[in-house]
What we know:
By secondary structure, the chain is α/β, with parallel strands linked by helices. Helix content is 46%, strand content 19%. Strand 3, helix 2 (40-54) and strand 4 (57-64) form a beta-alpha-beta unit.
Amino acid sequence: MAEDPNGSPTEGALLSGAARGTQDGVRHSFLCVVDESEELSLAIRFACRRARSSGGRVALLYVVEPADFEHWAAVGELMSEERRAEAEIRMHAVAAEVQTQTGEMPALYIREGKITEELIKLIDEETQISLLVLGAATASEGPGPIVSQVIGKMTGRVRVPITIVPGSLTGEQIDAIS
Length: 178
């Protein structure tokens, strides 16, 4: 760290940690929830731009909903395995896009359970996650199921700020604000 003649850190040294997105040597992560929605690409773009500009990184979460087959355990297990394989394929595709935009691989998390519960657990467990980034749909039915669940049920239970990227923004507009 650069110091002035009195041994105190210089302003540039103090700013350099923030510029790198670190606090106590831990890089901040911008978490996106991966699904099949169109608005995911907006959230990814915003998170990637924020990660690049702050020295942080992107984290991706895919939650596999549990199979609802109590009577036929073998069928339910096979369905769960198929969903997990689909999740891995989707995560690799999104991770490749993140790597293209940021120059590094994101942190990847695949969980099985209910999305709101798994999202809260992950944010509580992974202290480097500093922001949840979601994309909002532009459809007349509402902002989309994940945004609706998060805003309706989770707002007071999440320890990090939540950024909702409007689906009406263009890529250039996202670049300008991130």
